[in-house]
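Technical note accompanying the year-one report. For the benefit of new consortium partners, we illustrate the data format agreed upon in the data management plan: each record pairs a sequence with a structure-token string. No post-processing was applied to the example shown here.
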Amino acid sequence: MINSDSIKGPNRLVLDVLAASDKPMGAYEILAELREKGITGPPTVYRALERLKALGLAHHIASLNSYIACHDDHGHAHDFVSFAICKNCKNVEEIQDKSIRKALQNVSSAHRFKVESEVIELVGICLDCDESKGKS
């Protein structure tokens, strides 16, 4: 895992915006945050996001077409990440569960299939939203 302190330029700016956000952000939301810092084109943001993903410092949330910073306080392997996404508040939690990965490896092996990428996104309602819904 690369030390995020070594990230510079537009990559650093994009990472800082993602890290400051408590919700996933789309590329154009990131761009809006960075315009005052001289980043004016979507390609710069997309290149930075791809670089950050490759370094394991950001994740793409496909179902939301957005990105989150990886805080790596849970020591997961960056070649497999799963997420729990609240469709109400848009909160995203990274899930690190080796049994999920092992189950996928067993299924792919049993079907003689070579997996090139794995993304699991569980979409539902988080406990906070579910509890607050019941109090309405």
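Partners are asked to follow this layout when depositing records. Residues 4-134 form a domain with the Dna Ligase; domain 1 fold (CATH 3.30.1490.190).
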